[in-house]
Structures are given as structure tokens and as C-alpha cells.
Amino acid sequence: MKKQFSVIVIMAQLLGACTTQVGMLGDADDKNGEAEIPEAVIQLAASNQNVHSARMQPDGCYWYEYSGPVETTLLPLLTADGKRICGQAGAGETTPGYST
After folding, report:
1. What's the rounded Cα separation, in Å, for the pair 82 and 93?
2. What are the domain boundaries of the chain?
3. Per residue in 69-91, pLDDT tens?
4. Cα torsion at 31, 65, 21, 11 (round to 10°)?
């Protein structure tokens, strides 16, 4: 009985290791996990952010993955002066290619 239980536990662990992790950002616009980030967005973003993980979210703004000591979370992509970077104009937000 103990041997059979051990085999079941080992098989469950092996199957768990074979699963794919689904990202927080989704992949509707991604190609092989990489979405094209416009050059204007990269130039607008403050230097302390992971611009290469940025993706446009349903709110029309860019968000990036911040990897903290405990978890990875989404944060809005900001300019050096603290404005959000969005694809569509909004109050207090910066639209790439346009000055606000």
C-alpha cells in the first residue's frame, strides 16, 4: 500500500511539472510571448521599469511586470514625470507620438 501511494505522489509531481504557466498578462496580442512595443513607448518610459515586459491592457494603457522579492505583479508604465503611458488619450496620461 505504501509503495502504491508513493508511485501516485511521484506521478502527480511529474504531471504538475509538465504544465505550462499562464502569464498574468494574457497572450491575445503576443507572438511567441513577445508583443511589439512601439519605440515611442520605450523612449517615454522612466528608466527604472522593465519596458520589455510591457503590454497594453484593456484599459488602453501599458503595464509592465515588476518582479519583487515575493511575487511578480503588474504596475502601470510611467513616464519620468509620473504620467501613465497609454495608447489612447486620457486625463493625466501620455499618448505616444502626441504631446500633452
Report:
1. 9
2. 38-100
3. 999 999 999 999 999 999 864 44
4. 150
At 50 the three-state DSSP class reads coil
Give one word for 58, left, alpha or beta, with left for phi > 0 and alpha for psi -120 to 50.
alpha
- The C-alpha atoms of residue 35 and residue 45 are separated, in whole angstroms, by 16
Please give the Cα distance from 86 to 15 (Å, whole number). Answer: 40
- DSSP code at position 53: G
Q: Which three cell numbers stand for residue 26?
A: 494574457
CB of 73 closer than 8 Å to CB of 67: no
pTM reported for the whole predicted model: 0.56
Contact 41, 78 (CB under 8 A): no
Confidence check: pLDDT of 58 > 60: yes
Q: What is the DSSP letter of 78?
A: B
In angstroms, the CA 86 to CA 12 distance is 43
Q: How many residues does the chain have?
A: 100
